[in-house]
Amino acid sequence: MPREVTAFSNATVKRLRSLRDKKARKEEGLFLAEGLRIIAEARDSGRLPEIIMFSAEGARHPLASEIIGATEAAGGDAIETTPDILSKTSGKDNPQMILGAYGQPETILSAIDRSSAPLWFVAQALRDPGNIGTILRTGDAVGAGGLILIDDSADPYSVEAVRASMGAIFTQKVAKAPWSEFVTWLRGDRANSSVPASKPPTTISRSNTRGPASF
User: Fold this and answer.
1) Which of 103, 119, 134 is the last residue of a domain?
2) Could you tell me if 63 and 153 lie in one domain?
3) Which residue in 139, 126, 131, 208 sits closest to 168, CA to CA?
4) Which domain does 198 fall in, by range?
5) Exposed, middle or buried by CB within 10 Å (0-12, 13-18, 19+), for 36?
6) Is the pLDDT of residue 73 over 50?
7) Are residues 46 and 71 in the same domain?
8) Which residue among 103, 130, 153 closes a domain?
9) Residue 115 pLDDT
10) Which of 15, 17, 13, 95 is nearest to 57 (CA)?
């Protein structure tokens, strides 16, 4: 049964609001996703939130009600609250009526099998979180495996990046690495004797602040 929270001083409200900050996201291992479309995309990808927060109006939608129930059944925390608290939590004046806090997956570059997808995106020193979300959305549309962020890039789990991804943050792998580690991974994959010589090469699209390129 969802619990009702109407006070900004509530500990869970404070915790969720803190996730707008990169340091808090790293410490908590959580990130925010807002809107029924993105939360439904997460559910369809096999992900349920650890905490789901919604207004009474938001809970009336059959799909939202279903996801709220599934979250509770999986042991997650379901909270009904006011539109004002949702607005302050998401940082939007006109907030979505439902949002969730999800665990941040830790994807190590060396653990990614480059041959598992025909296309990977790489961005070096990409500072705009909206652009990261757009690349993830594009990757999802074209069947890419994910996005590799090189050097000092924006946080792919920021509210802005997740919002811009329109749910692709849940379908695309995301790894962060320095350039030297990326080059080692790239060369190591080519030298892997387990990859058949007849296998078509994986395409990697590289993007940076100067615009996209491919190699």
Assistant:
1) 103
2) no
3) 139
4) 109-214
5) middle
6) yes
7) yes
8) 103
9) 87
10) 95
Identity of the residue numbered 204? I
Does residue 72 have a pLDDT over 60? yes
pLDDT of res. 194: 34
For residue 48, which of 72, 25, 29, 27 has the smallest C-alpha distance?
A: 72
Nearest to 162 by CA among 126, 188, 136, 191: 136
Q: Is 12 exposed, middle or buried (0-12, 13-18, 19+ CB in 10 A)?
A: middle
SS (H, E, C) 88-110: HHHCCCCCCCEEEEEECCCCCHH
Model confidence, pTM: 0.85
Residues 116 and 208 in one domain: yes
Q: For residue 156, give the 3-state DSSP assignment.
A: coil
User: Residue 55: left if φ>0, alpha if ψ -120 to 50, beta else—which one?
Assistant: beta
